[in-house]
Structure prediction request, 227 residues.
Amino acid sequence: GENVEQHPSTLSVQEGDSAVIKCTYSDSASNYFPWYKQELGKGPQLIIDIRSNVGEKKDQRIAVTLNKTAKHFSLHITETQPEDSAVYFCAAIRGGTSYGKLTFGQGTILTVHP
Amino acid sequence: DAGVIQSPRHEVTEMGQEVTLRCKPISGHDYLFWYRQTMMRGLELLIYFNNNVPIDDSGMPEDRFSAKMPNASFSTLKIQPSEPRDSAVYFCASRIQGSETQYFGPGTRLLVL
Prediction:
């Protein structure tokens, strides 16, 4: 089955700095890669996603890049703010939408210091 | 839309007791997922349903766990008998056919003493 590795496990930055979280996946058939943000006491919420036919996607201060050859993808947050502090999870899914199983990375605790 | 609804939000019980967690997916969504989250194991998929039918229960840890989806708007995850190692946050998520995006509920924090 799919295996997703996520690094780092914790990340501490100063407000205004950039933050980068990296993930690798094992199944070359995976073609959809979402990123979820989980705030304390809440469920994970989708913040951005990318499909295997795209190399990069941006949404305001967040961006995701995908390298299919190397089987890794990354989340980039620019101009970080204290409200970006949360746990971030990457995930991968194989096949079309008929396949239900998302495999999650272990999570990264991001702390943004004011 | 109210989003995915889970109840109870917190549950404290004693070892050996039966625990039932409840989930109402987003209206119109035809996939429902149950996840367990712990510090040690992260987010684990336990089981998922499509059109109320269980598709993959390979993540269910053992026979003490069971899940049902009697209709499109309700699912339960039952643990009987519960054990301290079942303590975790249990999430329900749903999505609609044609979209990969899963929407998570707020979770049920379970503590088994």
Q: What stands out?
A: The mean pLDDT of chain A is 92. The radius of gyration of chain A is 14 Å. The interface with chain B takes residues 32, 34, 36, 41-46, 49, 89, 93, 97, 100-107 of chain A (CB under 8 Å). The first strand of chain A starts at residue 4 and ends at 7.
